[in-house]
Amino acid sequence: MGRFTEDMGRLRDEIQSDRIARQTLIADTRQEVNDAAHAFISNLKNSVESLQANFRDEHADMAEAARSDRNAFLARLGGAVADIRVAAASRQAAVRDMLAETAATSRADREQAAAAIRDDVAHMQESFRQARGVMAMDVKAAGQSFVSEIVHAVADIQHQTQQLVGDFAGERSAARQAWRGAPAKPAAAPAPAVSPKAAAKPAPKAQHKAAAPKEAMPKPVEPVVVNDPPPPRNAADEFTPDL
After folding, report:
1. Mean pLDDT for the chain?
2. How far is CA 153 from CA 48, 149, 167, 198, in A?
3. Which of 61, 84, 98, 237 is deepest in the core (most CB within 10 A)?
4. Smallest Cα–Cα separation from 92: which of 119, 116, 84, 81?
5. 192 contact partners, CB below 8 Å, separation of at least 6
6. 3-state secondary structure of 51
7. Is the pTM of this model over 0.70?
8. Per residue in 123-132, pLDDT tens?
9. pLDDT for 75-103, tens place per residue?
10. Run of H or E residues at 180
11. pLDDT score for 8
C-alpha cells in the first residue's frame, strides 16, 4: 500500500474513534442530566411531604391548644356567671326585705351588671376572631412564598437545561459543517443568564413557563438531532465524494 492509502486509512480510523467518543459523551451527558433531574424531583417531593406532615402536626397542636383555651375560658365564664347569679339571688332576697322604694334601684343595678357582662363577652369574642384572622393570613403568606420559591427553582433548572441543549446543538452543527467541507458559520450568541430577581417576577396566569425576551433568543442553526447518521458500509463510499 502507498503512503497516501495508509494516511487515508489512519484518518478514517481516527474519525470513527472520534465519532464513537462523541456519541459516548452525548449519551453520558444525557444520562447525567436525567439522573440530576430525577434526584431533584425526588428531593423536592420529600421536602414537600415533610412540610405537609409538619404543617398537619402543628395545625393539630394549635387546634388542641385553642380547644383547651376555649374550654378553660368557658369554665371561668361559667364560674363567673354562677357567682353573678348567686350574688343576684342574694341581692333579690335582700331587696324583698327592703322597702318598695328600693326595688326600682336594685333592678337598674342588675340590668347594668348584665350589660357589662355582655360587653365583656362580645369584646373577648371579637379579639379571638381578629387573632384567628391574623394567624390565617400569616399561614397563607408562608405557603405562597414557599410555592413561589419552588416555581423559581424549577424555572432556573429548565433554563439551564435548554441552554445546555442549545450548546450541544451548535457544536454538533459546526462538526457537521467541518466534515462536509463547508465554511464554519459564526456561533450564535448565548442567551443571557436570567438573574434570580428577574425570575422572581410573577408570570401571567395563562402561561405556565416564563417567556424569555425576544431579542435574547438565539436563532438555532439546525434542529437538535441526537441520533447520528449510519456510518458508510466501506471506506470507499465514505471518501470517494471528497476525492
Report:
1. 76
2. 14, 6, 21, 12
3. 84
4. 84
5. 216
6. helix
7. no
8. 988 998 898 8
9. 999 999 999 999 988 887 777 777 777 76
10. helix 103-180
11. 81
Q: How far apart are CA 203 and CA 147, in angstroms?
A: 13
Please, are residues 191 and 166 in contact by the beta-carbon 8 Å criterion?
A: yes
Residues 156-179, mean pLDDT to the nearest whole number: 90
Which residues are within 8 A (CB) of 80 and not within 5 positions of it... i.e. 6 or more apart?
Answer: 117
Q: Residue 157 pLDDT more than 80?
A: yes
Closest Cα to residue 201, out of 159, 151, 238? 151
165, 189 in Cβ contact below 8 A? no
Kindly report which listed range (2-16, 136-150, 180-194) carries the lowest average pLDDT score.
Answer: 180-194
What is the percent of the chain where pLDDT is above 70?
73
CB atoms within 10 A of CB 170: 19
Task: Say which residue the cell 395563562 belongs to.
Answer: 206
Q: Torsion angle, CA of 71/73/74/75, rounded to 10 degrees? A: 80
Q: Could you identify the residue written with the cell 423559581?
A: 152
The owner of cell 464513537 is 20
pLDDT at 159: 92
Residues 185 and 221: beta-carbon distance below 8 Å:
yes
* Phi, psi dihedrals of residue 122, rounded to the nearest 5°: -65, -40
Residue 183 pLDDT: 58
90 contacts: CB under 8 Å, gap ≥ 6 = none
**Cβ of 157: how many Cβ atoms within 10 Å?**
15
Say how far apart CA 95 and CA 104 lie, in whole Å. 10
Q: Locate cell 388542641: which residue?
A: 64
Q: How many residues does the chain have?
A: 243
